[in-house]
Specification:
336 residues, alpha/beta, twelve-stranded mixed sheet
Length: 336
C-alpha cells in the first residue's frame, strides 16, 4: 500500500461515492423544488459510472490508503441493484467499513437485500419528527413515520444506524429536543449538522446557522452530557454521550468549528469526477481515463497527483462573501 498525504500532511482515508444524482426528496437546503423541478434533467444512464468502474476505482483508492467507503447520492437507493455493488465493495482488501447515507423512504423495501450483501451501517437523513415541519423541509410532504418505521425494520435486521439532522434557524431548531428524546430512548446516535453553504441554490447565510454551541445549550437544558474522545484521526463529528444511558449525540461543525485540518475525505461523483472538498468548484475526470483504456497504475498515478497537490480548506476561509461568490458543486451531485 502506498501512503500519500496532501500539501497539509493530510492522508487519504475516506471515499464518498455518489451512485446517482437522482433524489425523491426536494430538501430546501439541497435540491429546492423551485430550482429542481419535475422536469429537471438528471444525468443519462451512460454518463454514470458502472458498478464495475466504481469497484475498480475503489480498489485503486484502497491501495492508496482509503479504508472507509460511503455510498451517497442523490438518494442511493434509487440506483437499481445497489446490493450487487455493495457485495463487490465489502470484499476489497484494505476496506474496513462500507456505509450508506439515505433518506430512508425506500429502506424498508431494500433493507434485507442490503444486509445480505454485507452492508452493516446506515446514516439516515431526518430533519424533524413533526410531520408538518418535516413535510415542508423535504419538499414532498413525506411524513416522518414512514422513515421511522423503516428504521425499526432495519434495526431488527441488525443494522447499526446514525441519524443526521440539518438544523436551520427559523425552520426546525424547535425539533432539537424532540429528536434528541426520540433517538436517545432508542439508543440511536443523532448527529446535529450546522446548516452549510453547499452548492449554489440554498440561499445560505450565517444568519440561518444554529451553531454547535447553541444546540449544545438547548440539549443541556434537559440532558446531562459528557464529551467523548475522537475514535480516529479525521473523525468529523464532535461526540458526546448522555450520562444516564450512554446513547450518543454528535455535532458536525463545518461553520462554527472547522475541521479542515484533519479532513481525510475524497469524493467521487456519480459521473466519475474526483473532488477533494465538499465545497469544490472543479473535479478531476476519472471516468474519461477509465473509458480511454488507462491501466490501474495510470489511474493510481492520476489520483495520487490530485491528492498530493490538494490544498483545500474552504471552511477555514469561509466568509459571507466567499459563500455567496464561489461557484460550488451541488450536494445532490457530489454527495454529502
Amino acid at each position: 500500500m502506498e501512503t500519500i498525504v496532501d500539501k497539509f500532511g493530510r492522508p487519504i482515508r475516506d471515499l464518498r461515492i455518489s451512485v446517482t444524482d437522482r433524489c425523491n426528496f426536494r430538501c430546501t437546503y439541497c435540491m429546492p423544488k423551485e430550482i429542481f423541478g419535475d422536469d429537471y434533467a438528471y444525468l443519462p444512464k451512460n454518463a454514470l459510472l458502472s458498478f464495475e468502474e466504481i469497484t475498480r476505482l475503489a480498489h485503486v483508492f484502497a491501495s492508496l490508503g482509503v479504508k472507509k467507503l460511503r455510498l451517497t447520492g442523490g438518494e442511493p437507493l434509487l440506483r437499481t441493484d445497489l446490493p450487487e455493488l455493495i457485495a463487490k465493495l465489502v470484499e476489497i482488501e484494505g476496506i474496513e467499513d462500507v456505509g450508506l447515507t439515505t433518506n430512508g423512504v425506500l429502506l424498508g423495501r431494500h433493507a434485507h437485500d442490503l444486509y445480505a450483501a454485507g452492508l452493516r451501517r446506515l446514516n439516515i437523513s431526518l430533519d424533524a419528527i413533526d410531520p408538518i415541519v418535516f413535510g415542508e423541509m423535504n419538499g414532498r410532504g413525506t411524513m416522518p413515520h414512514i422513515i421511522l418505521k423503516n428504521m425499526e425494520r432495519a434495526k431488527e435486521i441488525g443494522f447499526q444506524m446514525k441519524v443526521n439532522m440539518v438544523v436551520q434557524k427559523g425552520v426546525n431548531e424547535q425539533e432539537i429536543l424532540p429528536m434528541a428524546r426520540h433517538f436517545k430512548e432508542r439508543g440511536i446516535s443523532l448527529r446535529f449538522i450546522e446548516f452549510m453553504d453547499v452548492g449554489n441554490d440554498n440561499a445560505w447565510s450565517f444568519d440561518q446557522v444554529v451553531s454547535k454551541k447553541e444546540i449544545y445549550q438547548i440539549l443541556k437544558s434537559e440532558f446531562e452530557l459528557e464529551s467523548k474522545d475522537p475514535a480516529y484521526f479525521g473523525e468529523v463529528a464532535k461526540r458526546y454521550r448522555y450520562k444516564d444511558n450512554g446513547a450518543e449525540v454528535g455535532f458536525i461543525t463545518s461553520v462554527s468549528e472547522s475541521f479542515c485540518s484533519t479532513c481525510t475525505r475524497a469524493r467521487l461523483s456519480s459521473d466519475g469526477k474526483l473532488y477533494t472538498c465538499l465545497f469544490a468548484s472543479d473535479g478531476f475526470d476519472l471516468k474519461s481515463l477509465i473509458r480511454s483504456g488507462k491501466s490501474d497504475r495510470e489511474l493510481l498515478d492520476a489520483i495520487q497527483g490530485v491528492w498530493m497537490n490538494r490544498t483545500d480548506r474552504y471552511s477555514d476561509e469561509r466568509t459571507e462573501q466567499t459563500a455567496k461568490n464561489r461557484k460550488k458543486i451541488n450536494m445532490s451531485y457530489i454527495g454529502g
